[in-house]
Structures are given as structure tokens and as C-alpha cells.
TrEMBL record:
Keywords, in A-Z order: Signal
Protein name stated in the entry: Metallophosphoesterase family protein
Superkingdom of the source species: Bacteria
GO terms, molecular function: acid phosphatase activity; metal ion binding
Species assigned in the record: Megamonas funiformis
Coiled-coil residue spans: none
InterPro entries: Calcineurin-like_PHP, Metallo-depent_PP-like, PAPs-like, Purple_acid_Pase-like_N
Pfam family, one: Metallophos
The Calcineurin-like phosphoesterase domain, residue ranges: 60-276
Length: 411
């Protein structure tokens, strides 16, 4: 069967027009093997294999922040003691990304697709020609991994993806939420289903929680029979990393957790902090919290000492009350296997490439059941059946588990 695609003009970089080519294929059956070809410049390319999974018992690979090019500040023998630079960093990180995917598929051939919570690339590409070219090179490195010819992927928009249209030029997402009132240049949130699981991918770089509420409600309304409701987002509102978990994560925490509770979300998959963390079952505290404020650096009107602050750019801060850190309840501290638990389970992934790692905060938060920073790339394998959701997380190099298995059973 031949599927007709679309070709649209994408980004113009240094006077060169790039094009975005997309095609949507349908009619696939479970547990089947297919072959596909791409016609390029009038010539059919080599056939590639694609296998569909079992919707009643499937597994996906969850990776954190590949962020191709992020190692540019590192030094090694090849760089003669200097920082790597963008070209070498993109090349090295792309190589490590390829290693991670190959090892994961060797260690767990049962994986059916890949999920990333964002930051596929490092350069933000703020419509500057140099940045856009470097970002395009990084997307090329990310997508060059041979595994991705055979493994479907569903990726979120990270804060390094959100500032240009390059993300939407490279990914053909289903059910985009075009009703989003304040989208970023990268595009919109979206949703899809696999078996009895509904995946809702929100663009948390858009701080308008009403948009995410509307997307979640729309996705659920169109998938009322989905047993598992899973949100994928970039910012970790319940992580344990030093750089973000107690800053921009808190801003989103107070706004999003009541929405997750009201819509019976089971799991939230997060990235952003380049460290691994797994929570207990959590609920929001049901209390009203003030929204964050935005103000200029020289703007008065309130006592800054009462706020935590996070610098944005151009002298703009986001501020929020320190007390908002405690806007949750621990609903269930059971480990191993939990049956019909209350609350939402949050998982934050570490770097899948090793391009960048962050320290953990000195004192582990009470909502964190387990965490890890061993300065090595890792990935999680999540298995979903009719009644269970199970997550295991592995060291890329050794294939050994870095945390205990955690299973949610819903009967």
C-alpha cells in the first residue's frame, strides 16, 4: 500500500530552505511484521522492518533528556584540554545516543516503542541563524540512530526544544492540541493510545495550566475506556535534582497536581533534572495556592525575601511562595507491588546519553521513594498489561537494574 505524504517549507537557515516531509500510515494489526520504503528523489530506498506489539501486554523504553550537543562544555584529550565545541559535542552525544538505543534493544528486545520527556537537542534555536543550524545538526544526530528506523517514538517538547519550529518540523505527532491558547514556537501538546493506555503529552514550557487541563479533558473524553492514564511532560514537578526540582518544578506543581487528581491520572513521566527519582503515590493537598508572579528585575511592590526566585532572561523573574513546596500528601508509601492505590506516581529519568548530569539535592525529599545519580546513562522499561503497570530502570553499559521494580495493579 502506498501512503501519500505532505511536504511543507520548514525553517530557512543561512538562506537555505529546509523542507519538512511527513506521512501518516494506518491499517496495522497487532503482533505483525511489516516492511516500509521511502521514495527519495523518485527512487525507492532500502526496505525497513517494523513489528507491531501486543496491545494487551506491551513494553516501551522511557529515556531522559538525550540533549544532543549538551556536552560542549566538557574537555577531553581530543579537544586538547579545551571545551569540546558544538560540532564535536553533537557528534559524541549522537554516538552515545546510538549506543544507548542499541544496548537497550539488545538487553530488552520486547520494547515496542520509545518515549522521551523532551530535550532531544541542546541548542534552543531562538530563531538565530547560527543557533538554528547547530540545532538542525543536533536533530540530525538524534534521528540518525539506526534503531529509530524500526522503533516508533513519541517525544515531548523540552525547554531546549521549545523556542523554535524545528521540533514540529521533525516530528509528526497525532492529535495535536491546536486549541492551546499560548503555545510555544515548537508546537502543541498531543495525545495517543496504545492498548488500554492513554498517553497525554503536554508542553509544560507553556505555563498556562488551563491549556493542559483542556488537553487532558479532551484526551480522556475521546478515550473513555482507557484503563491507564499517563501524562508525559518535561519539567519534573516531583524530582530530586539540584537544578530544577525545587525551583521551576514547584511553580508547575501547585497548578498541575489538582488537574491530575481531578482526572484520575495514574502516572506522570518527567525529565529535566538529569537525575533519577521515583516517588511514592502522591495527591495534591486540595488547598488553593497563589499562582507564580512574573516581574522585572527592578520592579518593586512586594518583599522578595518571601519568595524563591528563578532567573529567566532579559531581567524577568518567576517568583512563587516558598510554602508551595509543601502542596502534596503522600497517599501510599507501599513498595514493590501496590494494588488499587490512591494518588499519582511520578517518575523522573536520568540522562540517556551522558551528555549532561546534575547533582541530587543534598537532602532527599519525603515524597521520593528512591533516587540515583551514578553519573552513567540509564533508561527505564515500562510494561503495561490489562491490570498492571511495571517500571524497571537499568544502567546502559551493564544492563543491571539501578532500582527495585515497582508495579501498580488496578483491579
Amino acid at each position: 500500500k502506498e501512503f501519500k505524504g505532505t511536504c511543507t517549507e520548514g525553517t530557512v537557515i543561512n538562506g537555505v530552505q529546509y523542507y519538512s516531509n511527513k506521512v501518516t500510515a494506518d491499517g496495522f494489526k497487532p503482533n505483525s511484521t511489516y516492511y516500509y520504503q521511502v521514495k527519495l528523489n523518485g527512487e525507492w530506498q532500502q526496505a525497513q522492518e517494523y513489528k507491531t506489539g501486543d496491545p494487551d501486554n506491551f513494553s516501551f523504553m522511557f529515556v531522559g533528556d538525550p540533549q544532543i550537543g549538551s556536552s560542549y562544555k566538557q574537555k577531553n584529550a581530543e579537544s586538547n584540554g579545551k571545551k569540546l565545541g558544538n560540532d564535536l559535542a553533537a557528534r559524541n552525544d549522537s554516538y552515545n545516543w546510538n549506543v544507548t538505543l542499541n544496548k537497550a534493544m539488545e538487553q530488552h528486545p520486547e520494547i515496542d516503542f520509545l518515549v522521551s520527556p523532551g530535550d532531544q537537542v541542546s541548542v534552543k534555536g531562538n530563531e538565530d541563524a547560527k543557533d538554528l543550524k547547530e540545532q538542525e545538526d543536533q536533530y540530525s544526530g538524534y534521528l540518525s540512530a539506526s534503531v529509530l528506523r524500526n522503533l516508533p517514538q513519541a517525544v515531548a517538547i523540552g525547554n531546549h526544544d521549545c523556542s523554535s519550529a524545528s521540533y514540529q518540523n521533525h516530528f509528526n505527532n497525532p492529535n495535536p492540541f491546536l486549541e492551546e491558547s499560548t503555545p510555544t514556537p515548537a508546537g502543541n501538546g498531543y495525545f495517543y493510545s496504545y492498548g488500554n493506555a492513554l498517553f497525554i503529552v503536554i508542553n509544560a514550557n507553556n505555563y498556562n495550566a488551563a491549556d493542559h487541563k483542556a488537553l487532558i479533558e479532551k484526551a480522556i473524553k475521546e478515550n473513555l475506556n482507557a484503563k491507564w492514564r499517563i501524562v508525559v511532560m518535561h519539567q519534573d514537578i516531583y524530582g530530586s535534582g539540584l537544578d530544577h526540582s525545587d525551583s521551576d518544578g514547584i511553580i508547575l506543581r501547585t497548578q498541575l497536581t489538582p488537574i491530575f487528581d481531578a482526572n484520575d491520572i495514574d502516572v506522570v513521566l518527567q525529565g529535566h533534572d538529569h537525575s533519577y527519582a521515583r516517588t511514592y503515590q502522591l495527591t495534591s493537598d486540595g488547598q488553593a495556592h497563589d499562582e507564580f508572579l512574573e516581574y522585572k528585575q527592578d520592579q518593586g511592590g512586594f518583599n522578595h525575601d518571601n519568595f524563591d526566585e528563578r532567573f529567566e532572561k532579559d531581567g524577568v523573574f518567576r517568583a512563587y511562595y516558598k510554602s508551595q513546596n509543601l502542596c502534596y500528601n503522600i497517599a501510599d508509601k507501599s513498595q514493590g507491588t501496590v494494588v488499587n492505590p490512591e494518588g499519582v506516581f511520578y517518575l523522573t529519568s536520568n540522562s540517556a546519553t551522558g551528555s549532561k548530569f546534575y547533582n541530587l539535592i543534598p537532602e532527599q525529599q519525603d515524597y521520593v521513594a528512591a533516587r540515583s545519580q551514578n553519573w552513567r546513562p540509564s533508561y527505564s522499561v515500562i510494561n503495561i498489561t490489562k491490570d498492571s503497570f511495571t517500571v524497571n530502570t537499568y544502567d546502559v553499559e551493564t544492563g543491571e537494574a539501578i532500582d527495585s521494580s515497582y508495579t501498580i495493579v488496578k483491579k
